Amino acid sequence: MNKLATLLLSSSLLFGAVGCDTARTSADAPDSVDENPVVEDATEVEDSLEDASSEIRQDQLNSDIRAREQRYDALGEPEDRADSDLESEVRAKLEANIPRSKLTVDAEDGKVAIVGTVPNQKEYETIEPLAKEILGVKAVTMEVEVVPPTES
């Protein structure tokens, strides 16, 4: 019985991980990087800002980045990373440094695609350098639009 429970649990975790094909910086970022990504309420960035700028969330993001770096340092081949790890690390880096963004990250063979919106040109210009800071990122393509927030 114990082995059956372990098998069922591990199977559900595996299917859950496979289902997460992209990484998003906010709940209303595009669902994928394919064909005409849609950002819901692109001008409303306060929810994203509040979530990403909380101290707890910042600690989580930094901890996630450090843990992945340490794991790859310990296992060797720090530049040979799984696509899902690249997606997660780039997403965490962008979310921590561009808290008002609504971005979706997808990676394939070290090539990272980023789509979505940011509220200003300065944040747009930081996306590519931040993504390239992650070991294993070979190239970055962006389909990101600058959409200023609405005035309250």
Automatic annotation (TrEMBL):
PROSITE patterns assigned to the protein according to its UniProt record, in alphabetical order: BON (PS50914), PROKAR_LIPOPROTEIN (PS51257)
Signal sequence residues: 1-16
| Keyword Thylakoid set for record | no
Pfam families documented for this protein: BON
Q: Region (Disordered) spans which residues?
A: 24-65
What top-level branch of life does the organism fall under? Bacteria
Q: Where is the BON domain?
A: 82-148
Keywords in UniProt for this one? Lipoprotein, Signal
InterPro entries, per this entry? BON_dom
Sequence ranges of Acidic residues compositional bias: 31-53
- Please verify whether the record's keywords include Metal-binding: no
The name of this protein is Putative periplasmic or secreted lipoprotein
Its ancestry begins with: Bacteria, Bacillati, Cyanobacteriota, Cyanophyceae, Pleurocapsales
